[in-house]
Amino acid sequence: MNKLIVKFLFLVSPFFLTSCIDPVEPEFEFKEGLVFIEGIATTVKGGSYVIINKSVNEFGINKTKFENGASVSFVNSLTGQVIELVELEGAYVPSIEFKANVGEQWEIDVALEDGRQYRSQPETVLEPVPISNIKATYNPELQYNDGTGSFEPGHAISITFNDPVDQENYYYWTFKSYENLLVCQVCFDGIYRDGICGPTSISTPDYFSYTCDTDCWKIRYPESISLFDDKFSNGKTTTDLIVANVPLYTKENIVVEIQQLSLTPDAFDYYKVLKDLVDNNSGFNAPPPAALIGNIYNPNDLNDFVFGRFTAAATSSVDIFIKRGDIPENSLDPQKPLSIEPTFMSPYPPPATIEAPCNEGRFKTAIQPEAWMN
């Protein structure tokens, strides 16, 4: 999602720098050094994270870069418990065992390397709404790609759930997908030794492929926002609602784990504005990009504007295994042909290497997904 959001980081008029947490669309112009913080604490283990980006101008191009070296923690607003997060592959994450619980209140505390500090207003974890069914439907024209000017194949994931009676409910869906990964490391103009790709004085091909030394799965995340409120369906069963598109990046079989977050009204309003910005940005008559004021602030300087939001949300999840080997359409991310380092009479420094570890991270795991079918 953040790849779609970063284009909206702009300087905001001090008029909007108040304690209000409603999303707004203020006057803006681009400025370097602006901070964007997106954080979610969920009731599902492994589902919580904080991502911090900063606006920069590199070679005349306005963009954002991940902010390394920050000190980030979740704070239980009721008990004072502090959960430290660690930096991992473009995000800050808590222990894999961490999960929020219904009724708890959480906030985040962020300290950047330059000394700036940011906090969020507390968020209460609501009751989750269970998902009763999940279905995957293949579509050779799943979604249109403006960049290529063509339709892309993939699966639409739909769910069924019973909306609670006599209460307003606001939903946000995200997912993780898991597909078999054959190659765990590719070295361009070099060889793999001691855990890294490095140069060698001996001529090499354009690249060497190093297969995973154990079963391994690549993890992908969505690049769009899926929301729903029960204004017109309160207390009813919602059937076969499409909540995710999973493009056919490869033809490897795949597990898709849908996570359904129950949001507060304030959180829903924020993400609704964000979704409108993302969905409308490429249209000919689209409104200009606008900034979003969330619930994060600098306690030491109210004139220091920060973009983004922290959300604590009850989460229900369900997963589905999808076979994709017989799909006739071409995949979107064709794999490079294997180029294996020679092991017999190798001219390269020993030891001859053909495998690399499946290092655990946000985008790779050796832990088999529960729904995986061999």
Compact summary:
This protein is mainly β. It is 5% helix and 44% strand.
Architecture overview:
- The chain has two domains: 2-180 and 216-322, no CATH class; 182-215 and 336-374, no CATH class.
- It is mainly beta.
- The longest helix has 16 residues, at 265-280.
- Helices cover 5% and strands 44% of the residues.
- The protein has helices spanning 2-5, 265-280, and strands at residues 11-12, 28-29, 35-42, 49-58, 61-66, 71-76, 82-84, 86-87, 92-93, 105-111, 117-120, 123-124, 131-145, 150-162, 170-180, 183-188, 191-193, 196-198, 207-212, 217-220, 226-229, 237-247, 254-263, 296-297, 306-322, 355-356, 364-365.
- Strands 3, 4, 5, 15, 20, 21, 23, 25 and 27 form a nine-stranded mixed β-sheet that branches. Strands 6, 7, 10, 11, 12 and 24 form a six-stranded antiparallel β-sheet that branches.
- A hairpin with a 4-residue loop joins β8 (86-87) and β9.
- It is built from two helices and 27 strands.
Question: pLDDT below 50 for ≥5 consecutive residues: which ranges?
Answer: 1-28, 282-291
Number of strands: 27
Mean pLDDT: 88
Distance between the termini: 31 Å
Query: What amount of the residues lies in strands?
Result: 35-45%
Major beta-sheet overview? 9 strands, mixed
Q: Which structural class do you get from the secondary structure elements?
A: mainly beta
